[in-house]
Amino acid sequence: MIRVAARGSKLSRAQANLVIDYLKGIGYEVEFLEVKTRGDVFSTQKVAELGKGVFEKEVNQKVLEGEADLAVHSMKDMESDLDNRLEIVATLPRESPLDVIVSPRNVSVYEMERETLGTSSQRRRNFVNFVNPLITVKELRGNLDTRILRLQQGNFDAIIVAEAGIRRLKLDVKYKEIDPYDLTPAPNQGIIAVVARRDNDKIKTIIRNLSSEESYNEALAEREASKALGAGCNSSLGILFNQDGNRLEGIGTIYTPKIKLSVAMSTSKEPKDAGELLARRLREEAKKTGISIQA
């Protein structure tokens, strides 16, 4: 029996089921363990007020305590520093990393006028304030299906969410993709990570074939850049890498309500080195323009 821990939201369950179906497909019995995190319990508070690891710590704790063999996460919710007793043992093939704007009128952020947009992300909030100051940005927390429901109930004119979640839940909503050079995604957006104890060689062997090398390389480069810049999972930094053959194409963007600073690069360096290089270039450009990089 292999025990898989994850949050209980519809999206988290859908992501965990990708791992569970794989394990069942190769002959293992699987038990799902639903975990409530601090982010779930305090669902009305701003994420930034809850500290680090608000959607992952309690799930990983189940693995550390031996109650679960694996933890499944939206990787963008994971902090760049993982407990050294744990290891990311698989990254599934990446879904779309893009942000999208969802609205009944199916408009872009540039087409909106004196309307209301919901998000809990500082990165998305700063982007909207920068490109269209006519929009009123209001706090919107909750699971993806809850946020979509609040939009449909008329609480907001539009919301910005990750396209990966919409695809994984097969939601029938109108939306427009946002170009990553306009709104660079959060590090690791669209990637599912599987975590196990570092010393659990049996589980690591079992899960190995589920992992995508391309997804892992992109994730590693993004996490390294994020770590080098001191960014948490709710920072105003966007970082995206795309592997194209033996090269990694990277974008890093800093957003404030009045300034957007982007750096793009291409390198054949190893993922960690690529991430460090992007972080260094972004920090250099920020210094030239007097922008402070804050987590």
UniProtKB/TrEMBL annotation:
GO cellular component terms, A-Z: cytoplasm
A Gene Ontology biological process term: heme biosynthetic process
InterPro entries assigned: HemC, Porphobilin_deaminase_N, Porphobilinogen_deaminase_C_sf
Pfam families documented for this protein: Porphobil_deam
Keyword Transferase: yes
SUPFAM superfamilies per the UniProt record, alphabetical: Periplasmic binding protein-like II (SSF53850), Porphobilinogen deaminase (hydroxymethylbilane synthase), C-terminal domain (SSF54782)
Keywords: Porphyrin biosynthesis, Transferase
GO molecular function, one term: hydroxymethylbilane synthase activity
Enzyme Commission number(s): 2.5.1.61
Residue span(s) of domain Porphobilinogen deaminase N-terminal: 2-204
Source taxon at top rank: Archaea
Family named by the database record: Belongs to the HMBS family.
Full protein name: Hydroxymethylbilane synthase
Organism: Sulfuracidifex tepidarius
Lineage of producing organism: Archaea, Thermoproteota, Thermoprotei, Sulfolobales, Sulfolobaceae
